[in-house]
Amino acid sequence: MPIKMKNPSHPGDILKHEFLEPMAMSEGQLARRLGVPRTRIERLTKGTTGMTPDTAFRLAKFFGTSPEFWINMQVNYDLAHTHVDVSGIEPLSA
Questions:
Q1: Which segments of the chain have a pLDDT < 50?
Q2: pLDDT the model gives residue 6
């Protein structure tokens, strides 16, 4: 069974605190470099929107990471913060 993080960070938090702040780069500056609307990066760093594949590819190219780096953070965040009642679902039996 995979190890699950207890409280994974939103990818926007990582972007802001681990990438933008150390580089003294604003959301607007990054948005211009990526060719996206400023509001896309601002909403991402505020945690009001999630990481999209498009943004993941752009960030990966710019920062020299991989798209999976960014998307996996979003998936881990979503899994940790989504609560679904599956108690009424009967597993498929062979």
A1: 1
A2: 76
Amino acid 2: pLDDT: 53
37 falls within a domain: yes
Both tokens of 30, joined, read 């990054």
- Is 45:18 a contact under the CB 8 Å cutoff? no
Residue 54 lies in a domain: yes
pTM value surpassing 0.85? yes
Burial of 69 (0-12, 13-18, 19+ CB in 10 A): middle
CATH of the domain at 15: 1.10.260.40
